[in-house]
Design brief:
Layout: H1 17-36, E1 40-41, E2 47-49, H2 50-53, H3 58-63, E3 67-69, H4 76-80, H5 91-98, E4 99-103, H6 108-117, E5 126-135, E6 147-156, H7 162-178, E7 183-189, H8 190-199, H9 206-213, H10 216-230, H11 237-247, H12 251-261, H13 268-286, E8 293-296, E9 310-316, E10 319-329, E11 343-349, H14 350-359, E12 373-375, H15 380-395, E13 400-402, H16 409-419, E14 423-426, H17 429-434, E15 436-441, E16 447-451, H18 455-462
Parallel strand pairs: 1-5, 7-8, 12-13, 12-14
Antiparallel strand pairs: 2-4, 3-4, 5-6, 6-11, 7-9, 9-10, 10-11, 14-15, 15-16
């Protein structure tokens, strides 16, 4: 067998113990927040039928779905059936013959499919959280991966804006408990975007119009106007500048001007979106203060695929790209045969959150988590006593290990230091005879001799264990 250089696909990463401690800290923290608000866990397969995923994310999103090639000789069947490859030119026409499944693109569409398939077992409103990886055939770059984790919370079967308020509170609690400061949560409404398109005479080509507008951060205002012109949209520059000025205002200042903009009877949809935003901002104002900044962004679109109401997106000043997104979808279950079931949810981007916490040095305190106590192995009777103490520590929920074989103490201490243990316990012949142990705190070098019967209480009092 020839030698092969080991590699992994671009846009994917390996995670060693140090990285996994940070990732598990994120997952565990968010999981506690989700449970506090009454959300229940589910999981769905990483593979979905391609037909379940396509048509839900917009044209650009559909291109980023990872298709799975059918097993067997997938070209054999069409050839035998006298399939005309010349007449069926184009990969989209050939696709159904070679691929029926795909890796999931997000957790929301599989959730909608799950709800429809399990509706007889669910009580509505149904609140679920889901922490699993998703895949996108995107171009890898800083902060953008082809495989990444999403931490989702969704409620389906509830129409009221109190669900949106709850998601704002979850967003605030999640980032606060993760220790992530400087987060801005931007809010918009799909109906308000439709009102903007109507204002500029583009209601009949809404998605195309807003998709170009959504590129503002990437191509700038001049680029947006150029694309609009190429597609036949005629947008008055002065009117657009006025709208940009409104978007930069706090919601309280922007509200009267937006009311004026959507006051006509020909823009009922924009007025409805503004009304929903006004109600949501009112709920936020009368609930306890939040640690995050909440702002209106009337240009926020988030791809538009299945959103129908409120749109959420969060980010920080020191990271390009969103770290949370979501929105209201009124009929996503309808495409699977269960119409009229509204849902709303948000998704925390665990990988991007990890990158920010790592860059800010917020994982330093986790270095010794998971490897708390190492008992030195002196062999013989001392080894047997160390095993007894080890079992006692584990029974008291104190993570501990015994070095797996007799070896020079210096080697064992070096291992403890390099592997990130917090404490080393020494039970040699002397300690065995006296019924004591010697405890060394590796971070400070302090040592203390104590009775074995006091060890558990000492460790509980002197070490802060992660939940």
């Amino acid at each position: 067998m020839s030698k092969q250089k080991p590699t992994i696909p671009q846009g994917t990463r390996d995670f060693g113990p140090a990285e996994m401690l940070g990732r598990e800290y994120i997952f565990d923290t968010l999981r506690r927040v989700f449970k506090r608000y009454g959300y229940q866990p589910i999981e769905t397969p990483c593979i979905e039928q391609l037909s379940v995923l396509t048509g839900k994310y917009g044209e650009e999103g559909d291109r980023l779905i990872f298709k799975i090639v059918n097993s067997g000789d997938y070209l054999d069947a069409p050839l035998k059936a006298d399939f005309d490859f010349h007449q069926a030119s184009g990969s989209l026409k050939l696709l159904p013959l070679i691929s029926e499944k795909a890796l999931r693109y997000d957790l929301t569409v599989p959730f909608a499919r799950y709800v429809v398939m399990n509706q007889q077992h669910l009580t509505f409103p149904f609140k679920r959280y889901q922490i699993q990886p998703v895949w996108r055939a995107d171009r890898p770059q800083k902060g953008r991966y082809r495989e990444f984790y999403q931490c989702d919370v969704d409620v389906v079967g509830a129409n009221g804006l109190l669900s949106e308020l709850e998601l704002v509170r979850i967003c605030d609690a999640g980032f606060q408990e993760l220790g992530l400061e400087g987060v801005t949560l931007r809010l918009n409404n799909r109906k308000l975007l439709e009102g903007i398109a109507t204002h500029f005479g583009a209601a009949d080509r809404f998605v195309e119009f807003i998709t170009i507008l959504d590129k503002m951060d990437k191509i700038g205002e001049d680029g947006v106007f150029k694309e609009w012109a190429e597609k036949g949209f005629h947008v008055d520059a002065g009117s657009f500048s006025h709208l940009k000025a409104i978007s930069a205002m706090p919601f309280e200042e922007a509200l009267p001007q937006l009311r004026l903009l959507f006051s006509g009877s020909d823009n009922v949809i924009g007025a409805k979106g503004l009304e929903e935003l006004e109600t949501l901002f009112e709920w936020i104002s009368i609930s306890p203060p939040v640690s995050i900044t909440i702002a209106l962004d009337i240009f926020l679109a988030r791809g538009l695929g299945y959103y129908t109401g409120t749109i959420f997106e969060a980010g920080t000043h020191d990271f390009r790209g969103s770290i949370l997104g979501g929105g209201r979808y009124d009929n996503l279950t309808g495409v699977f045969g269960l119409p009229g079931l509204s849902g709303v949810g948000i998704s925390f981007g665990a990988d991007r959150i990890y990158d920010i916490l790592l860059a800010r040095g917020l994982f330093e305190k986790l270095k010794s988590v998971g490897k708390k106590v190492l008992l030195i192995n002196f062999g013989g009777a001392a080894e047997r006593k160390s095993v007894e103490v080890w079992m006692d520590l584990l029974a008291n929920d104190i993570p501990a290990e015994v070095y797996p074989e007799f070896s020079k103490p210096a080697k064992q201490f070096k291992y403890a230091d390099q592997a990130g243990f917090g404490y080393v316990i020494v039970i040699g012949d002397q300690e065995l005879e006296a019924g004591t142990c010697n405890v060394k705190v590796l971070a400070t070098g302090l040592q203390e001799t104590m009775k074995l019967t006091s060890l558990v209480d000492f460790l509980r009092l002197t070490f802060t264990f992660m939940p």
